[in-house]
Each structure stands twice: as C-alpha cells, then as structure tokens.
Amino acid sequence: MKFFQLLLVASVGVILVSSRAVEQEGKRLIKTSEEDPGQWMDENEIFDLIKAKKTFIDITDSDFPEIKPEDVNIKAIPTTLRFQEIVRDVLTNLNSQRIEDFVREFSSYHNRYYAAQTGRDSQLWLLSQVESSIQGYAGSASVVEVDHGYIQKSIVARLEGADPTLKSEVIVLGAHLDSINIRGSSLQAPGADDNGSGSVTILETLREIVESQVVLNRTVEFQWYAAEEIGLRGSQAIAQAYRRDNVNIIGMLNLDVVGYYVNGVDDIGIYTDNGNAQMAQFLRILTDEYLEFGRRDLTCGYGCSDHASFTNAGFPAVMAGEAVDHPGMHTVTDVLENMSIRQVNEFVKLSVGLTIEMGEPNRP
Question: I need a labelling partner for 54 at 20 to 30 A (CA). Which of 13, 67, 97, 299 fits?
Fold first, then answer.
C-alpha cells in the first residue's frame, strides 16, 4: 500500500493527489450501484461492463464520506439571472472554426486511453492548448497537471477570483479527456463526441472569458479528467482531495458527449440523476435565457460520468449532454463528421452563462 501526498503548484506544474494503490492480483474494486459494496474485476471484466453499457465507478482508491443533504452548500446557486448583457457580449467571441479544429486534432490520436502513450500525448497537446489560452488574462490564471499514478494526467486551469472574500468560493467546469474502444484498450478510439466535444466546450468557455477580459469575483476551475472511461478515476481523485482539503465548491458542471445531433431534436439534455436538483434547475433557467435549443430532463444511470464524483464528495454538481445517445460511442465511428458543431455551440453558451452568472463579474 502506498500513499501520495497532495502537492500544490502555484503556476504550471504537477499535483500529486492522494491515491491508495490497493489491488488484488491486478484487479480493481468496481461498484455498479448504490447498493453494491464493490466487486474485484480484471480488465476483461471491466470491458464487459462497458460493452453492456453498464455504468460503474472504480472505488479501489476511493473512500465515500457520509454526505447528508444539509452538508451540501447550495446557497450560492442562483435562482435568477443578473448578467445577461455581459454574457451575450462574451458570446460574441464564440468561434465555431476553432471548436472544429480542436476536435479534428484531438480525435486524430489513435486513442486517448488512460494507460496508452497516445493517451499521454493527446493530454499533453490539450495541456498546450490550455496554457496558450490563459495567456493575456486580465486577472490571475494558472494551470497544473494532476498525477494519479498512471501515464495520463488530469489538467486543472484556474482563474482566481478577484474579490478577497468571494474568491474562496469555487465553480468547477469539468469534462473527461480520455477515450476508449469497447473492443479493446489498444484499438482506435477517436472519441470526437466522447469526449472531445465536452473537452472543447469548457476550453472554448475559458478562451471566451479570457478574450473578453471579464474578471470574476469567484474562482473558476476548468478541469479535464483522465481515466473517466474505466470508472471515473481522475475526477474521483480530485473531488475527494478537494473534500479532504475543505475546498468550497459552490457548483460543478460536467460536460460529457455534447456533439451528437439528430435532425429535429433541437434540445440539450439536463441529467437529473447523480446530481443536485438546484443545479439542474439553474441549467433550465440558463437554457431558457441563452440557448436557441430547448431542453429535456434525462437520466444516465449510476456513476455515468464525472459529476457523480463530485456528488459523492458532497458538492452540488450536474451534467449536461446531448439529448439523443450517440450510437457510435466507444467505436471507430465516433468522428468529427458524425457530430454537430452547431450543437456544441449551444453547450458553450450554457457553460459561459453558468460561469459568468455564478462567477459574478468584478466591476469597479
């Protein structure tokens, strides 16, 4: 058994998040429901779950604190909108070509599997995009890698809040950066929609905030997670470290598979399980104000994506995603040509709206 201590780096650097390497002959402890205490599984058994579209969480390195509803801080979740003019002004920077170019490059790697060299190479390319995106920010900005003990790392970019009091309140935008092919870990997995689309949504949000020179009173973190596809491992490590360190996360938005579009379905999906009801309602308010698309409430199953990691750690979290499941998910057909940049734009609007409305622009 080995433990890594939390190491915070002020600017570009590495965070080592606490990890408990407890395995039974190469197996991982996998939890498939709230009631399931966990079962030890090898890689083949885990891939069988993915093939069966059975959602799960890898709890090998995790602990689940008892979270009571009253322990979840929902006081800062808005119930009305205040900054419509600023949001709409920021959205004039929305760049569809930049979004398309990102997805094309990010999905060109053989795969982004967490244990593969291409999983690391693609993550380093994303890191370079994030680093260049925060250049010239009018406030204080930084980016770090998060080391979980495997080759692929998570990435956290931070825009420090300008208000001396409110900056301790943190808003998180998250998306996983890895990809997988259900037939095997060494096979091609472009992952354009899953989850190049979510990754570019929060990157474009970061870029638009920086380019508009809007400085927020609250702190905003943009997080790209490693190893989501095999049990939410990257996001769990971060969320649980934040819980141990008493980080005051006032809201978390997870963007996962936001690019698959079916003609006539001009809706986004607001996922109401594994999450917080007040955050879901806030997404409805944002959608009605800022998006051309409508909305529909959906569910995705136990531990379906990274917002579940933050919910399990006691933070108010929610996920937004496409309204219709992508039939080519986790296959070689998950490519740019099978997704809609127009739809991704709608999720950028949602993400920008949430960031500004919750972040609260700093005004002289």
Answer: 67
